[in-house]
């Protein structure tokens, strides 16, 4: 049996979980609300302040969906209580970011600036001399995807380390050309 799928999900006091018709799950908390359509072969039960994810049989697909569904529901509960944040850093001469309303304007060595419009539920925060910025939101998958899309605008290069990288990312550096030998 799935070790992750077996674990119950504790519902914090300010979070309201609603199981609707057709396996429709809605999680509402202090930061906002998230919804998810649960696969029909997975059963979610609410028992004394905890959510339990169960599977009716041991078929391969059902076993695969068991742990996945439990992890997705846990991410929804965490998202509506604390939210998710991905921190990125811009490194390079003249490279910077700034906020223009809700949009993020990125200057990373191109002849033009790139304006990134946040999707619904995502916000940007710029700090530290316009080189460090955060992508905030409720949905873990969406926060990660938006951060990856911004990083893809100018991925870090291995010779000088210039580009956009995650704050905790380590770039493996290359030596470059060796000098002319005597």
TrEMBL record:
Domain of life of the native organism: Bacteria
Name of a matching Pfam family: Ribosomal_L6
Keywords linked to the UniProt accession: Ribonucleoprotein, Ribosomal protein, RNA-binding, rRNA-binding
GO biological process terms held by the UniProt record: cytoplasmic translation
Domain Large ribosomal subunit protein uL6 alpha-beta residue range list: 11-83, 92-166
Gene Ontology terms for molecular function: rRNA binding; structural constituent of ribosome
Assembly with partners or alone: Part of the 50S ribosomal subunit.
Role summary: This protein binds to the 23S rRNA, and is important in its secondary structure. It is located near the subunit interface in the base of the L7/L12 stalk, and near the tRNA binding site of the peptidyltransferase center.
UniProt record similarity statement: Belongs to the universal ribosomal protein uL6 family.
Full protein name: Large ribosomal subunit protein uL6
Species annotation: Candidatus Thermofonsia Clade 1 bacterium
């Amino acid at each position: 049996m799935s070790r992750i799928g077996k674990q119950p999900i504790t519902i914090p006091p300010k979070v309201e979980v609603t199981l609707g018709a057709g396996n429709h799950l809605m999680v509402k908390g202090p930061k906002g609300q998230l919804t998810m359509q649960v696969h029909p072969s997975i059963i979610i039960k609410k028992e004394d302040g905890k959510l339990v994810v169960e599977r009716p049989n041991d078929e391969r697909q059902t076993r695969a969906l068991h742990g996945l569904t439990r992890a997705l529901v846990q991410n929804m509960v965490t998202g509506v209580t604390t939210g998710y944040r991905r921190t990125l850093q811009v490194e390079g001469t003249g490279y910077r970011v700034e906020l223009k309303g809700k949009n993020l304007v990125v200057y990373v060595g191109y002849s033009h600036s790139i304006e990134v419009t946040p999707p619904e539920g995502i916000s940007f925060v710029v700090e530290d001399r316009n080189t460090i910025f955060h992508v905030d939101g409720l949905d873990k998958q969406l926060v990660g995807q938006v951060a990856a899309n911004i990083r893809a605008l100018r991925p870090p290069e291995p010779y000088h380390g210039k580009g956009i990288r995650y704050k905790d990312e380590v770039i493996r550096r290359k030596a470059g050309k060796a000098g002319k030998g005597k």
